[in-house]
Amino acid sequence: MKKFLNTADTYLTDALAGFAAAHPDLSVNLESRVVTRARGAVPGKVGLVSGGGSGHEPLHTGFVGEGMLDAACPGEIFTSPVPDQVVEAVRAADSGEGTVLIVKNYTGDVMNFEMAAELAGEEGRRVETVLVDDDVAVEDSTFTAGRRGTGATLLVEKIAGAAAARGDALEEVAAIGRRVDAASRSFAVALTACTTPSAGRPGFDLPEDEVEVGVGIHGEPGRRREKLRSASEIVSDMVDAVLDDRPLESGAEAIVVVNGMGGTPLSELYLVYGEVAALLEERGVSIVRNAVGDYVTSLDMAGCSITVCEAEEGFTDLWDAPVSTPGLRWGI
Amino acid sequence: MKKFLNTADTYLTDALAGFAAAHPDLSVNLESRVVTRARGAVPGKVGLVSGGGSGHEPLHTGFVGEGMLDAACPGEIFTSPVPDQVVEAVRAADSGEGTVLIVKNYTGDVMNFEMAAELAGEEGRRVETVLVDDDVAVEDSTFTAGRRGTGATLLVEKIAGAAAARGDALEEVAAIGRRVDAASRSFAVALTACTTPSAGRPGFDLPEDEVEVGVGIHGEPGRRREKLRSASEIVSDMVDAVLDDRPLESGAEAIVVVNGMGGTPLSELYLVYGEVAALLEERGVSIVRNAVGDYVTSLDMAGCSITVCEAEEGFTDLWDAPVSTPGLRWGI
Amino acid sequence: MDIELARAWVRAIGAAVERDRERLGELDAAIGDGDHGANMQRGFAAAVDAVGAMSPESVGAVLTKTGTTLVSKVGGASGPLYGSAFRAAGKRLAAERAETEEVGAALSAALEEVRRLGGAQAGDKTMVDAFAPAVDAFTRVAGSGGRLDEAARAAADAADEGLRATEPLQARKGRASYLGERSVGHLDPGAASTALVFRALAEAAGA
Amino acid sequence: MDIELARAWVRAIGAAVERDRERLGELDAAIGDGDHGANMQRGFAAAVDAVGAMSPESVGAVLTKTGTTLVSKVGGASGPLYGSAFRAAGKRLAAERAETEEVGAALSAALEEVRRLGGAQAGDKTMVDAFAPAVDAFTRVAGSGGRLDEAARAAADAADEGLRATEPLQARKGRASYLGERSVGHLDPGAASTALVFRALAEAAGA
Ligand SMILES: Nc1ncnc2c1ncn2[C@@H]1O[C@H](COP(=O)(O)OP(=O)(O)O)[C@@H](O)[C@H]1O
Ligand SMILES: Nc1ncnc2c1ncn2[C@@H]1O[C@H](COP(=O)(O)OP(=O)(O)O)[C@@H](O)[C@H]1O
Ligand SMILES: [Mg+2]
Ligand SMILES: [Mg+2]
Ligand SMILES: [Mg+2]
Ligand SMILES: [Mg+2]
């Protein structure tokens, strides 16, 4: 395994310590593993908390800050946080207006956040949960744990964060977060497997001429393997998968995220975005906003995900609203 | 070779086309290979132009925009742009106040920009050149082409860009750019080699347990090979190399960039930053600003560079000034 | 089962997941995200410390503390599941000693909790496929007057059997379900750790 | 040398760098950034088109056009160097035909331009180490009344010799100099392309 690290066991703490040193406007509790805004909860504002396994940076810790999250609780690598962490984060985020939990739909995340929500409730705190489940590689049926939460998490956290900053009430913030998730679909392809510090070797072996199609963000294998093809062929399949699941009519407006998995250079992501833009234009869909870069990663995996979110009433204004976090910043 | 691409020959054009589609506030000429602000030269402002081989994204195209560059000219991958491109960029950037060329110190870049500067001069344009040469892995002697320009380019382009935006005159903008370069030193380590689309395979073979120390940003081998060691050992050698070349006294203030080469996940970069911060603290140097992320990359290379720039009078204010580019944004 | 045996059981699980950490991780890497070994090791190492540090008044106190520790240290799917399971079992054993049949009832309560929380049916390729047959075997032997070590050994064998039976199954719950047919042909990591849990009980009781 | 031969020379270079693109790229990957093959191929393919499309009045016009095209198409270090070299040579050959000695003088001017621009000395492990001996050999043969094909063949052989001699050298100019001692033991890519340039002249003249 080739990584900048000291020991596999200290990887996460060391990385969080560096994150803390780099961002004095955030406060990082290395003990409780909770990242909050240094200034604390914002009086009169609904709190926004998210978290999940680590290894997806900048998600979620990198999205704590003005206009987005109030607190994040990073779990072990690819392991959802424990209820204590989440409760700790809720306490830090709750100004009395209640807290929205943004949870990616994985069995572990859902169970741990549910337990945390119960505990927070027992403390008399109002908590609403927004489940993110945008990955169409997983059919949403009784034969699965349901669609995974992936690239759309960026959109949900930004847009719900802006709604909270604007002063929306608990139920309203949760509602718009759910609308964003409902309007979003994603699909991912991996060119290489990622290596977790503890495993020390790639999660799966992928021949030099094959790709994993329909992968998640935890290094798990995808739905199937395919021969590596041209970007235009791969992307057209990805866009089909996304739009077959949730068709967009000609004339529709969309926010598109081309998200790198961590090991893919920006120039490739732009190349992919160019293909997506052309395909959507063919279908008469106009992209009103876009984000191209590493947002929801999978350690050093080479690959990308494509997220298409129909820009419903109000989404773009909230997307454009000022945000100041390590991973996303404008207007401030 | 595993990349999202159509053909090696179209890689650059396709990536630029995607970049153009993603950033409507920039105008990208795929013919002349020049990226400019859509609104064109800013009346009364000194123009800022940079360029170099492609494969270092977001550098330089991603730094075109308010508060930073007026135009960039991306060459072929790892190949400096041709004089025509540079002249084209100068024409687009020059509002009559003259233009500063920011050139990374490589034989090819220097010669092509020099030729361009001559041509622009023949058109009666005032041009000043700022050479960036921060990489201490290369000794600055008659036995080499001189130190390479690497991570400090981010600082020079941001700070000189802010000076130009503030209304500084041609000589002043060039002068502060040179001061930033003179105050900066960098050193890089690679864990893997990068693969150019045309070569189709890694530039050098690196055993699973070895790293290249003192690499540049063009996939060239470094000064030497070493066994992979712990992050704290590697980083402490890197920081020593940087500070031995340009010592900082206790009490000095610095701007630090921990720059990813393209294939290294953000969590590792933060881990590295944590080590750097601790080492500088030991030496009594306080980091007043930092940037951790992918800024000056080398395609898919895994690795990072550390840049330490002494924060001289005025640097931090100009660093903090509003900037709105695809690769760097705040305050706007 | 007395307090010391309960403690010994937790220590035996800790030793087992420490030893098989890699194997559990590889099983999880094949159809999940590869962290199950680390999760179990982290959780039970903490549980061993916790139950070692306390002076429990009851068998249940040991198991409840184990469950609470797992919940607060593991995360992922297995944390809440094993954690709640041990807590549910602990609730049922309020005395200093527990008859084998009482232990069986406690294990049944634990299984119920796993079913309730995770919603997995038999055959979904989860820990339930090892947990359920183990509890059945335990209660059967206990019901016919068998000793704890006998019941535990039967449970461990049944769990191993259930684990083996997960290989041909297609996962319908948890991460492995994302793979669809590709989950077929692999053992379920959680079923594998469950088999370790019951084998550890047999060892502790046999000693 | 007449206009047609000048054109044939450029075409021969184009064919050679097309054929050896990979090899030049690998030489450059070893001690540089691997783009020399692509650079030469891109540049001379454009030059072949350019000189094919024009109706030149002089030998020099062909070489000047070649140089201008290289400058505007290649980039990197080799673009300005080869481009300026061909332009310098072109300036000296204003007539429809050029005597072999005149060609030698033009080649000397080209070499001077490379030296001036790049500042490389003999032994710095650059194209100069092939260029300089080639020009010496050419002018020597031309000076003693040799024909163009004879002079060109001598130049090509000297360039090959100069190329071979770059292997043990440590680079002092260009990217390869960044490697310090690690540049020793490799041929210089630019010297390799220079050898192709002179071999192409010999072929064209011999034909
Ligand atoms: N809904 C569920 N019901 C019962 N057991 C489950 C469920 N989901 C997952 N599991 C068990 O959890 C195991 C995975 O645990 P672990 O890898 O630690 O958590 P995660 O899947 O979050 O990484 C699976 O092998 C399976 O046995
Ligand atoms: N200062 C110089 N003087 C003469 N030749 C040089 C100089 N610098 C580089 N070269 C030649 O250029 C060659 C590299 O060309 P190329 O790879 O196309 O450009 P780059 O080095 O910019 O990638 C080297 O092999 C060397 O022969
Ligand atoms: Mg997990
Ligand atoms: Mg080059
Ligand atoms: Mg797992
Ligand atoms: Mg080169």
Automatic annotation (TrEMBL), chains A, B:
Which PROSITE patterns does the annotation name? DHAK
The family database entries (Pfam families) matched by this protein are listed as: Dak1
Q: Which Gene3D superfamilies match?
A: Dihydroxyacetone kinase, domain 1 (3.40.50.10440), Dihydroxyacetone kinase, domain 2 (3.30.1180.20)
UniProt entry keywords in alphabetical sequence: Kinase, Transferase
Question: Does the keyword Transferase feature in the UniProt annotation?
Answer: yes
Domain of life the protein comes from: Bacteria
Supply the name of the protein: Dihydroxyacetone kinase subunit DhaK
User: Which source organism does the UniProt entry give?
Assistant: Streptomonospora halophila
Gene this protein is translated from: dhaK
From TrEMBL, chains C, D:
What enzyme class is recorded for this protein?
A: transferase
Question: Which keywords, in A-to-Z order, does the entry hold?
Answer: Kinase, Transferase
Membrane spanning stretches:
none
What terms describe the molecular function in GO for this protein?
phosphoenolpyruvate-glycerone phosphotransferase activity
**The EC number(s) this enzyme carries:** 2.7.1.121
Indicate yes or no for the key word Chaperone: no
Q: What protein name applies here?
A: Dihydroxyacetone kinase subunit DhaL
**To which species is this protein native?**
Streptomonospora arabica
